[in-house]
Amino acid sequence: MEDPSVQVQAPRVLNVLEALKQASVDLQAHPSSNSAEFNSSAIKALLELETESDALLSEDPHLSTLSQHLADLKTLVQTLHKSRGRNSLRSFLARRVSTHSISRVAGSIETEIQAWIDREHIERLTKALKDLDGGGGNEDELVKLLTRFEGRVSQGFSRELQDLVLKSKVFSLLETILCNPSCSKSLREQSAYSIASLIRFNKDVFVGQVLMGPTVQALLTMSSTHSIKVLCELIKSIKSPLVDEIESNGEIPKIISLVDMKDLQMKLLAMDCILEIGYFGRKEAIDAMLEQGLVKKLVELQRSELGGDLIEMERFEEKEKNDRGVGAGGVVESKRESRERKFLKRHPFASCVARFAVQLEVGEGLRQRERRALKQEILLRVREASASDAEAATIVAEVLWGSSP
Fold first, then answer.
1. What percentage of the chain carries pLDDT values higher than 70?
2. Which end of the chain is less congested by CB atoms within 10 angstroms, N or C?
3. Structural domains present in the chain
């Protein structure tokens, strides 16, 4: 049972540690012994906080090492003070060594503080997840904790943080919330984002839990723009193994059905998922998509107002020039955006059949023989789905020549 007095002290300790951490970061950036900079530097703040925090830190055994680092810093600063004003070689060397040591100790202080903050946050997050799973807890507070957790994990790999996450079984708790329909959609979506952040954090460790667990099924059951966005990110990260799992679990039809939804954002996200599956999927996954009438759906999207083909791009650019007028000089196309991307921003489903075919052609999941056979099947289905010979001829030409951004 955790001591209530420790719970009360935690926020106060956290505030002191956050201030110490910022001061240590500043000190590492500016460890100079120059007198003008020295007196106004983070050293002053660290020493002031060292005095204030001494009683607080001594109450937590996890902070004993930090207390020692602060004491070492105080000793180093005193040594540096003594060497100031002297011009001997020994004093010069002493200042250089002290300055380097101060920067090193400041780094150790930052590391110790981050470890304490991570431990405190993971404990709070784990408790909140368990409380909610048990029928209690505050959803709004948990969403804040998850948002902070996602931000921390996204800062990059840390073995100490990973050990905390694994020991606390955070992934399983996140998955439980994601799969719980009684939880709010916003909470489940934030749990999904946290799961995705763990995959980015260390795919090798956490990917197995996604493949063996109900994460993908839960994301598709939710079918919100956020859940499908996470699904697409997971496909990009985990690649063929996840596509294999999606296909073997019979989830391909659910993904293809998202193209029929009225919400434009959902259609776009479904298209992203389809293109990623096309790139990473093996023949079984591609066959499953074609059996669900994917080519016909893509032809219809290409035929829509937001469709078209990249051959129309020149007409689009000419129209833009006319709309700007002769006197609108100085308008220069952004270097960050290619002509195709600019066109596709206005026409997101343009040449979508060819774009899908190109994914199969350049992707990782198919053998060369399978690529050739599937291209022929796509061409056959294009002719069947087209409303006219002209439409079929345009799409077939794009597929054959690989018209894709």
1. 76
2. N
3. 7-115 (1.20.120)
